[in-house]
Amino acid sequence: MNLHHINRRESLQTLGMASLACSLFGMHRSIAGEKAGDVDTWLGHLHDNASRLKTGSISSLQWQEAMDVIYRDTPLTSLKRHLNFRQLSDKIIAEIPESRGERFHRVDLLESRKRKLDGPEPRRALITKVAHIKKGRSVPPHGHSNMASAFLCISGEFAVRQYDKIEDQAEHLIVRQTVDDSSAGIGTWSSISDYRNNIHWLTAKTDDCFLFTSKLIGLETGRPLNGRINIDVRRAEELGSNTLRASKITSREAADLY
User: How distant, in Å, are the alpha carbons of 152, 158, 168, 224 from that of 228?
Assistant: First the structure.
């Protein structure tokens, strides 16, 4: 089923069924590859799905299921042209401090390109970014609280690991691995929420690793918001059945270690 032919009034259950056909896990590969397409229509689906989550008409899990369909049908060539990717990628690389392995750059795909994007991230509004990760460096293993996000590889190749958050302790997270993909290339995507694959860890394997990301924060009133809960997976205690007890670490420690 192609999302471009789905009537917007149809239920999210249809989208969920389509996503289950893609994969049993949280890591997926685009069937579309580098196909051309209507990027404006695609962006409309992206924002419509975010609006449903923002208003509470769908759950975070349903948002993830719909993102499986939307990212599967990404018109990658058209999206990169819309982003002015060549110029944007050079700008992002120039922005990364030498001490950091990653840089996330806000992009606005529907509104005026003149709008200032360097302020606080708005709650319950779709935030889109393009990220670059240096070869051999990582988006360190981390979880979230009260947010949902989805990553799409638009250039390069990554090693991607994902984990379900089983228990949140004072100084540790108990996590269970769900995804281990050592060669996630262009058109590969994943998503996270408080309810599925909450922890992710992405390592760049090539020099040209870029991600397109979509996220919403502050989804549930009264629930604490935490953009990153960094953990040390490499030195975690193994509990069996792909389950780990990993120490929480600071952002500085995460950047130094990963």
Answer: 19, 20, 13, 12
Q: Is the separation of the CB atoms in 117 and 106 below 8 Å?
A: yes
Give ∠ CA 61-28-122 in degrees, rounded to 5.
Answer: 45
Residue with tokens 């580098």: 34
Domains along the sequence of the chain with CATH: 3-257 (2.60.120.10)
Given a cut of 70, the residues of the chain with pLDDT beneath it are 1-37, 111-119
* Number of other CB atoms surrounding residue 121 within 10 Å: 16
Give all strands (DSSP E) within the chain, no chain letters: 27-29, 102-107, 127-133, 138-145, 147-155, 158-168, 172-184, 188-192, 199-204, 209-217, 226-240, 243-248
pLDDT 10s digits, 145-201: 999 999 999 999 999 999 999 999 999 999 999 999 999 999 999 999 999 999 999
Enter the tokens of residue 32.
């579309």
